[in-house]
Please model this.
Amino acid sequence: MIYITRRLEFCASHRLFNPDFSDEKNASTFGLCNNPNGHGHNYVLEVTVNGEVNPETGMVLDLKVLKKIINEEIIDKVDHKNLNVDVEFLKNVIPTAENIAIHFWNIIEPKIENGTLYEIKLFESERNFVIYRGVELERSH
Ligand code: NI
Model:
């Protein structure tokens, strides 16, 4: 089993708030990220696929193919966008790194034909990132 990763970057703005919360509760829950007019991040996205090396190609999957999937399905839709209003798949979602990563997974996972999506790592800043590995399956012993 081998793991291969493609890293991509995008810039986007967002505002974290829950419409069901009062202004005070939104401010205390989301802090600076609750700024009414939003703020931006330079996101870094790492998508990792694992699988067996195909002996005929020496590859799990062609990274050019993975790059094309991520660009078309994700980057083109979120880069230089406001995640609260511009992105169809994030409608009615609080655009935290956690929620964004889960939605990215759900979009990319079915598109991977060679290998299996293993991990979505999304950096919101150099120090803050989330990792999503899909729904953990019950393991039999
Ligand atoms: Ni933020």
